[in-house]
Amino acid sequence: LEALQMRAPGSHVMLVVTHIDAVEAAALDEQCWCVKDAVRRSLDDIRQWSGDDIMVHAAGESQRVNCLMGHGVSQLRASVINFSLSMPFFKEALPLPWVQLRSDVEQRIRAGQRFMGFEEWSKLAKSMELQGQLFRICTSFLHETGVVRCFGTLFNADSSHLGAFYNTVFFDVRWMIDVLKGLVRHDRHALQDFFSGVKMNKTMLRRVNRLNATARLHKDLLPFLWPSVASSSEFWDSARAGSEQERSLWSERKVVTCEADIEKAVELLKGFDLVVQQRDEFLVPAILPPSKVQVSADAFSGSLCTWKVTFSYPKLPSSFFQRIVVRVAGRVTTVEFSSSAAVFYLLGNVCTILVGAGEGGQHRLDVSSSGKEMLAMVKEEVGHVQAFFPGIRGRVVAEVEGKEPWQFCLIASDEQSRDLLKAQLKELLSSRGLRMTEHLLTDKELSTDEELQQIRVVIAAVSDGFGSSRADQDLLSKIHSRKAIIPVLMNSLALELSWKDVVANDASRPLNMRDHTKTWDTILAESQKRLEDEKLAMIHARGCFAKCFRPDVLSDSEIEEQAKKATEVTWQKQREHLKGAMEVSLLPRAMQLLDNWRADVNSLSAILSDGFDPSRINCKCGHVFKRTELANTAASAPATATVTCQQCSHAHIVLELLAIPEVRPCPVCISKNQASPGVFSLSECKLQFAEGIQRFQTTLECKVCLKNGRQSKRHQFDVFPPDVVVLATERALQETHNILRKVGTESDTVLWAGTSGHDNALALQRCSVVILILSVDFMSDEGLKRELETVLASGKLVIPLVDLSTWTGPRDQQHYWKTLTRVAGSPQMPITTFQKLERFKPVLLDLSNDGGPDSMVQQLSALVSSRIHRAVNVRVFSQLPMRGIRLSGLITLVRKWCHHHDIQSLTTAEVMLRFVKPETERSRLSWCDQEEFSESVHTAEWFVSHAWKYKFLDVVSAIQTHFVRSDPVIWLDILSVSQHERNVERPYEWWNSAFLNAVGQMGRVVMVLDSWEEPTALTRAWCIFEVFACETTCSEFHVAMTDDVSRRFVEDMKLEGSVAKMNRVMNSLKCEGADAQERQDRDNIFENIRR
Questions:
Q1: Under a CB-based contact definition with an 8 Å cutoff, are residues 285 and 322 in contact?
Q2: What tens digit of pLDDT does each residue of 358-375 get?
Q3: Pairing of strands 281-283, 216-218
Q4: How many helices (H) and strands (E) does the chain have?
Q5: Which candidate in 226, 682, 1006, 1033 could, as Cys together with 1000 as Cys, close a disulfide (CB 3.0–4.6 Å)?
Q6: What SS3 string covers 596-656?
Q7: Residue 114: beta bridge partners?
Q8: Angle at which helices 415-430 and 556-581 cross, to 10°
Q9: pLDDT by residue (tens digit) across 1020-1057?
Q10: 616: β partners
Q11: Distance in angstroms (rounded) separating the CA atoms of residues 702 and 397
């Protein structure tokens, strides 16, 4: 009733109950009364928030029908007829062409035609003498009566600009439903099974996983949404043969038969605001898992988004927020979204949307933007979505005007240099709707955090004296650490100076504008000198008394006057040339940096500026939330629950606050009021759980407690309670520990497996899912049976895993399942208690089948994830660390090491042993994890592939040369991965999944080569695997060389016969000759590549 009122207010509803012969008369009366009472209460609620009534006939009484005997059918027929008679259009005559057109459509549907272009539709109508206003009214009538579906603006003369969806008349409503069904169905395991087994394709598997986890649909997956074009027919044959769900869902019906059908299906989804295309992917917010968080917290800074508007709604349909995300995403360059929050970026502006609970049971929509125009754009789209739901009445309850950002800031050391660029830049930028401010380095306002936060990209006019003082250097370092800088070399800059001489560690490529930025005085002086030189030449040519007798020799005043005129001409030409140079070189680079800008308010350092305390979470205004209280709220409230900041009154989505990378403090350190408590990483703990399944390890060590002489061992459950507990005999655990370890890592959960005892009892209290490995031995263990009884009484999700290895009867899963009830009885656990298990579907444990373990891991991971509310990452093990270091930060780090030691001759492996490992000895984390709150550490953007035999400075030099134009965040293994766990044995499958997904997430790989003729990297198997990972994940591949190697390569290419030499080098490369430290790794790598 609520959905009807939102979309079609004032609808008429008639309630009908069928199969009345299936219940007793008293039960039927009771059910009908319950329905009537529910309708009454619902209508009272609708009147409060809508003000309109849904017309429910007979006061909510249900028409009772027995289909078998025909009882009640005549009464139902009479009710429908009486309702029809009451309608104002009943018995209204239809023009004959309308009837003819309707009959023609019905024939086309029977013939299999699904849609028609609007122009063709108008021609069809014209053939039946339907034109002009009559044609549009007839089309509207057929649309309203469900004969056709036409969503264009019928009464506009031209709707061609609206797109294919609005210029199509759809005939087959069932086909339209099938199109929607292919997108919104929830079970995509058939696709995962197909690409991981039937037709192995890691790239497509990754795209399916990405769709499940991030709601981003790659265009190559479109044919696999609906049966079936030729490219997907093999999948649909496999799916129908192996999946009862797919077979019943689609039968033998073909939804798409050609590429044109797929294009029309996509247009339909776009028109319904379900998808929006961004490059090669479609965003589908409606299918994102409810708890999936992929929104950057930086964008929600109150000081960054100062323009705000808050809408209040009595009710919100489930698709309201997702429709807004789709509509706005189609107008911006980048979007991040979760189920309740979204962030949009467009040319240096950022806008956030949060949906949640408001006061008095209302729903609120908070829109915050860094600029007025972007806020207006989002408000426009909110208005469109509100119009789609005419039954809900939203209102603006708060609106705040803020400060516009500066897309660009021009900085200079003197007014003359600033003014040379200022006018031309402002003209170019203002024509594109962009704003620019300008500052001298001496301006105190420029050094404030508030001003810097409003600036997106900095353009530096580098002249003589720029950054020469210590104060200027400090300011430039601050700007460089937070903003992208485009250095512009001015004419007054000494020729021997470079940008790196001005700003240390900045690898930005400067733009040389020396020829176009001469000052007026410089041009005037050059003009005067030229004229004077001409005068002297003329005098010397004619003799010393020539001036006295020849009037064409200029006087000093004439030289000055002509120099001014020449300077004016040159000045105007220089302005034109400068503008042209800016359009060609400066503007494209500036726009690219602006497009790549993301909200970055140094959130980690800002949030934790007053000391690191992982037990709390800070609002951007500084107010503190306790993590435990937020976790309790999230556990007992809906996913959209909000908590209001007492200081700034901002309503935060609880799940968004909890999404800050989770570490947890040592409980003893907290109880001792330790200023800097010891902390434990959730990801490390998950890995320890997974690796410790065999060893029953239950302790963590707090380094801070150890340092202070306190007992340092902590029970894991006191820090990270398990998500999943496995109940099994010791023998069963030993046989299945590899399967269980993979389930824990693939489902991204903390999984505990142990025999009965204190640890199990504690784990069972705190977990959400219990896996039972049931066997005859299990049923003879009284301790396990008592724990099982506790679990069944707790209401937790139970996944029974039935072990047939000890069963001597028929190898029939169902027979075994029923028979277990006869051996389960005991005084402590009656058979009736055990029979509660029958409501859970058992999973067959069969280790004798080679393919059994892998399929079982996938099945168990999916079941676990469905309860833990995480997206299923099939074929994905525990994550590879994704933190990296900015190139400028790496150079600073290397300089620090060089200051104390000579590292010229050290290899990468030696640098790791001499510097990285000792510096991280106490934390035993990776260098990047240890320096998590450093301004240089961020999520990696580039993966660096290199051989550890290289000299480390050569690696750094090659990377620096390659990225001379930017300052990217790079993933360098010696810094991004802990060097204290290299002896941890991870299965090859871990690398083959976690590694591939990590490379794919970064999307860009750069390989360092020490020689183009005999590159060492291509002799190492793991480097070959990194190239394979790049290819498999469709990532970009780049090559980096040092200046010397690059120069030698260019010189070689200039020589005669260079092409033949290149061909010989390429032909001599044989990846199969590569080696690895572990022979098994090499074999696994090449086997995978061959597959």
A1: yes
A2: 777 788 899 999 999 999
A3: antiparallel
A4: 48, 40
A5: 1033
A6: HCCCCCCHHHHHCCCCCCCCEEECCCCCEEEHHHHHHHHHHCCCCCEEECCCCCCEEEHHH
A7: none
A8: 50
A9: 888 888 888 887 666 788 999 988 888 888 888 888 88
A10: 626
A11: 49
